[in-house]
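User: Hi! I'm a student and our assignment asks us to look at how structure tokens line up with a sequence. Could you show me two examples?

Assistant: Happy to help. In each example below, the sequence comes first and the structure tokens follow. Example one:
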Amino acid sequence: MVTMADYTGLKPAWCKGCGNFGILKALNQALVNLGFEPHQVLMVSGIGDAGKLPHYTKGNVFHALHGRHIPVAIGARIAYPELKVIAIGGDGDTYGEGGNHLLHAMRRNFDITCLVHNNQVYGLTKGQASPTSDPGFETSTTPQGAGPAVNPIALGIGSGASFVGRGFAGDGQHLTELIEQAISFQGFALVDILQPCVSFNTRNTFKWFRERVYRLDEEGEYEPTDKKAALDKASEWEERIPIGTIYREQKPLFEHHILGTDRPPLAKQEISLAGVEKLLGDFY
């Protein structure tokens, strides 16, 4: 039986007190709770502190270029769907450099889980403003203050993601449960995780979030299949911030559209050069 010890990787090199530690523990616990062995999981990451996470756990790992982790995850999912594919990146990696890939992956609905460590700052490169920095946030690149921020939840819902949730690195049990739901869901799952950066973001701290976050399942009846209600929740930020499953909709998977449901995955299909020869013939 799989245990947390099976997911013990290298010693993390994050700053002491970083919110990434909570995300690492929650992801490992979620995989253990779901009964996945490390060899059954593929973690694809980009560049940044969040991108280092796969090195600090166990499993199959592909370290991609900055903002390019999602297309690699999609390719792996199509080629070998027996793997549980998890794309891992920061807010800059996913919403900035990789924003175009995220947008089209969500609307097509590939069956991958996308975990975003959202610390609202570029931590690895010493504190520049990111796409999710609060308006007015002053950094070396925004001395007059950052402009309007990307709203990841509204972006996910509006772009067609079939599962959109938000977690908080300071609430480990709740985050573990949310990641479990996202991994178990069949379809593109976007999980925006509030991850305080203790070195370069002195505004959105653990204390700041704890005074504002609330669990949706503790606020009476909430139905995550109601898109209008979900968009209303997406607009909440400054005073109250909802965490949990914000939107959920079961839709056809795009990989079924590509391969059909009765064909073996690409990794198990016989290699044929006929198509390649025909393609090359067009150039001669």
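Example two works the same way, sequence first and then tokens:
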Amino acid sequence: MVDLKTQYESIRSEINIAIQEVLDSAYYIGGPQVLKLQKGLEEYLGVRHAIPCANGTDALQIALMSLDLKKGDEVIVPSFTYVATAEVIALLGLKPVMIDVDYDTFNITRELVEKSISPKTKVIIPVHLFGQCTDMDEIIKLSKDHNLAIIEDNAQSIGTKYFSSELGTKKAGSLGTISTTSFYPSKNLGCFGDGGAMFTDDTELAAKVKMIANHGQDKKYYHSVIGCNSRLDAIQAAVLNVKLKYLESYHKKRNDVADIYDREFSSIDQIITPKRHDKSTHVFHQYTLKVKEDRRNDLKDYLAEKGISSMIYYPVPLYNQKAFKGYDQAMKLVNTELLCHEVISLPIHTEMNSKDQSYIIDHVKKFFA
């Protein structure tokens, strides 16, 4: 699905120099590389505060911990997303309220959120899925109407531009009360292990987030709150500092691949290519088709026979996962059920060459011929 080895080869010398600088400095936790990444992310996203941490799941958990929620408070999340988004809610004794998503964009909408707001609702977590931003203008208006916090899950869409009618052009991750991201290796901006970060314009909240991520201490050995240990190590920061310089070019390469897929698949009636929202760019963390006529699984098997990778993100709605049994999630959400049955993601990455892409396209076409 991705070619991280070839990507590394293209920037090998820069990566090796950056890692060697960490080894020479002996700043393995914190230090100049982490500070450089923090500043670079703040500038790139246009936010006042970036706080690196150990991984994207920790980022979500710490963001929730910073909002002074009480056990039983409700947090609205999409039902069609990776488990981490809802997992941390349950882990903290909060209640994940799983809602349907828009069939075309895979993201939540104001209408879908509004139906699920109750007196216990405290937070909305929009997930910018597959590389495209949720319609945040409407989510922000709704949050203000009901005094709700917004945590943007930006693990798949860092760098996506959102064209806000109220705020102008903003990047995904700069629109919520706080936002989170993951630097897992396969992400558009990925390190060589685990990593994550949180972003906010609220200086007081940023200080609290930093404290929680560092054992709840604002001064060494003085612990003001119960926290956790979640730090991005300096070697991962060094890798990310190199890759951040190339992120916009990575987005362009992914869009070039997506455009070719779109064009070549446009005449196949049994598949639906990804819809672009008119208020958002797309960075194509995944290129996800919808396959009609109950042929998705057969297509996946056929591609595997031809040596072509594909993935199903996601095969089971969150509310049907065994882990969430007991959360009053006895439901069947129409779009989520359809998507879990229809979606398939094809390889898309920065090192895709025309020969490999043509091979994939030819076999998709042969399957539907």
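Here is something you could point out in your write-up. The two ends are 24 Å apart (CA to CA).
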